[in-house]
Design goal:
The protein has 127 residues and is of the alpha+beta class. Helices cover 32% and strands 21% of the residues. It has helices at residues 6-16, 66-71, 92-102, 105-117; strands spanning 27-30, 37-43, 49-55, 59-65, 81-82. Strands 4-3-2-1-5 form a five-stranded antiparallel β-sheet. Strand 2 and strand 3 (49-55) form a beta hairpin. Helix 3 (92-102) crosses helix 4. The mean pLDDT is 93.
Amino acid sequence: MILLTDDLRNRLLANGRRRDVDNVPVVKFFNPLGEGVWLATELDPDGDNLFGLADLGCPELGSFSLEEMDSIRLPFGMGIERDLFFATDLPISVWAEAARQAGSIRAAERILYARARGDAAPETHSP
């Protein structure tokens, strides 16, 4: 799978030029076989270093390498994938706080989408 389309790359690069903004995640990557979810908001001009929220067991804001994610080889010939249906209008700060409270990006996603639908939010746990 192509991790970044030209449109996604251009949006991430544009956000990278506006670092003083609480950017909205542009793309979500995930490990289809286990731990690992990344929400990217920005891309450095080098075309490799992304910034966003990474969760490899503990969600945290920081930088991660597109090249390294693309080089990961999982069982059955799989690799890191891009969530084709991911869409949000919430800034990364909201995602980071929800993930911190819920314990993971995946749990935060369920909570935030439930709120957007008007459902009662599922219970969260504090670390």
